[in-house]
Write a structure and sequence with these properties.
Elements: E1 9-17, E2 32-42, E3 45-54, H1 59-71, E4 76-87, H2 89-104, E5 108-112, H3 116-124, E6 132-134, H4 137-142
């Protein structure tokens, strides 16, 4: 870079996910928005920030961003769940797949999850024992890199 400044690359994907309702019924909940944003704040480090519900309908967008980060050369990926209100098993599968892909490249996956309801799901499923989960972005950045197996 000629001016000596590091530029952060950002990509954002967003769409409205409509709650599934039985045919002939009136929706009882408003539409839930979902957004995933991919940024690269430092060489070799990518952040995938999510907003909304991560479920069967939205997880493919999450997976796309996570794989793009890894394929672009990130060896440390932070998944920021700070603005996530719900995760299902599909979302958990994306986290596991991303972690495995990074481990195959001697990389690491960090999770930022201040939401106690979402964090409880990670604990119940045992993912807190295999993934590094942090309460804030600052904590994730300061955390030492775990050694890949």
């Amino acid at each position: 870079m000629e001016d000596g400044l590091r530029r952060t690359r950002r990509r954002s994907y967003s769409f409205e996910a409509v709650n599934a309702q039985p045919t002939g019924t009136t929706p009882t909940e408003p539409r839930q928005s979902f957004r995933v944003e991919l940024s690269s704040p430092a060489d070799g480090h990518a952040v995938v920030a999510l907003l909304g519900e991560v479920d069967l309908f939205t997880a493919p967008r999450f997976m796309e961003a996570l794989l793009e980060a890894v394929d672009d050369g990130a060896d440390r990926v932070t998944v920021d769940l700070s603005a996530v209100t719900f995760v299902d098993s599909t979302a958990l599968g994306v986290l596991i797949a991303g972690s495995k892909r990074l481990q195959a490249r001697s990389g690491t996956l960090d999770i930022v999850c201040p939401n106690q309801d979402v964090r409880r799901i990670l604990e119940i499923t045992g993912l807190d024992r295999v993934l590094d989960i942090h309460s804030s972005s600052e904590q994730a950045v300061r955390a030492p890199r775990a050694e890949a197996d």
